[in-house]
Amino acid sequence: MDIMDYRRRSxxxxxxxxxxxxxxxxxxxxxxxxxxxxxxYFSRKEPGITHVLVTGGAxxxxxxxxxxxxxxxxRVTIVDNLSRGNLGAVxxxxxxxxxxxxxxxxxxxxxxxxxxxxxxxxxxxxxxMHFAAVAYVGESTAEPxxxxxxITSNTxxxxxxMEAHDxxxxxxxxxxxxxxxxxxxxxxxxxxxxxxxxYGKAKKMAEDIILDFSKTTDMAIMILRYFxxxxxxxxxxxxxxxxxxxxxxxxxSGACFDAARGIIPGLKVRGVDYKTPDGTCxxxxxxxxxxxxxxxxxxxxxxxxxxxxxxxxTGKGSSVKQFVEACKKATGVSIKVDFLGRRPGDxxxxxxxxxxxxxxxxxxxxxxxxxxxxxxxxxxxxxxxxGYSS
Length: 390
Ligand SMILES: NC(=O)c1ccc[n+]([C@@H]2O[C@H](COP(=O)([O-])OP(=O)(O)OC[C@H]3O[C@@H](n4cnc5c(N)ncnc54)[C@H](O)[C@@H]3O)[C@@H](O)[C@H]2O)c1
Description:
Blueprint (H helix, E strand, L loop, with lengths): L2 H41 L7 E5 L4 H12 L3 E6 L6 H10 L6 E5 L5 H10 L4 E4 L6 H6 L1 H21 L4 E7 L22 H17 L5 E7 L1 E3 L21 H9 L6 E4 L11 E2 L1 E3 H14 L5 E6 L5 E2 H12 L5 E4 L14 H7 L8 H14 L7
Helix pairs in contact: 2-9, 4-6, 6-7, 8-10, 10-12
């Protein structure tokens, strides 16, 4: 070994040390300029800006809510575990609102109490819109524990975190399934709640937790009981894209579109012997754009020490047969329909009396033409044959 060779070798540890130092410095700088400067917007209250946590914001209704809130200049944090939602929907929102401090996405499971607490500790939320849930009646009868955990227990976790971190406003996604199958139609907010499947029961229990808690707090609370949600963003940016494996659980609009696209051979209408005018179930179909408008109005009108409970529906029932006819017209496809026996957990007729929300929140459904709502949704479906991965 000559002297030169020895010197080169003796400098090697120093060079390695220097390289490691530079890498560490870059990493620290990156964290300070990139990561931390973005999260600063979300971790501090800013006068004039309302920061809303949208749980389940990668899902169908939550993503539409996030879009509307962002359009209306709210600051939005989406928390979702992507178990049922789509990262593609979040990406659309991020592309539309790329400015710092507008939108952040946090991947987390609301069942993980530590993670939830950390999210609330690190972010200055003014309000929570709690959409995240598993939400299929049929699935809930097959997997009740999953529903009680995901809906009831996770809502308890959210409310506890809100209390611990002084978040003042909760808008809760509930459902007409909490009413069960009332004798008298239309359903008002005073109709007794007697749910007949685990989905409805889990939501009713979550409501009860919120209502009991409301007696001990000055939190502003709005509970919105949605009827059957359809439609999508009229500008075609977002749509409904459930996991293919959930097709069988199917909501009716998804099944109609799948049949129209030939993904499934036809439609299976379950139950033709209900006590309704044409024997098929009657539902109140509410357009997602109207539904989100109700949330924004509820948020604006939410007051401390006050709980508002509202049905969100059109007040008009349509039968499954009528729905299928509207879907055929909207898609232009003559969908094959098979009529089968009843599905467990379904109820015959459900439609709302929306007069309370009309009166108190000055909200009224605007998209009341089934064919029009379905035509808008169909445009998105046609352009996104593989959902958000198209
Ligand atoms: N779609 C309807 O017709 C309807 C009717 C009445 C009420 N609702 C309620 O509206 C809300 C939204 O429903 P949707 O139709 O948009 O459903 P969706 O499945 O499209 O969205 C739910 C979102 O919540 C997320 N999520 C579920 N569990 C989670 C968890 N543990 N942690 C974090 N994220 C989680 C999912 O990944 C998904 O993105 C639900 O609370 C549902 O019960 C829906």
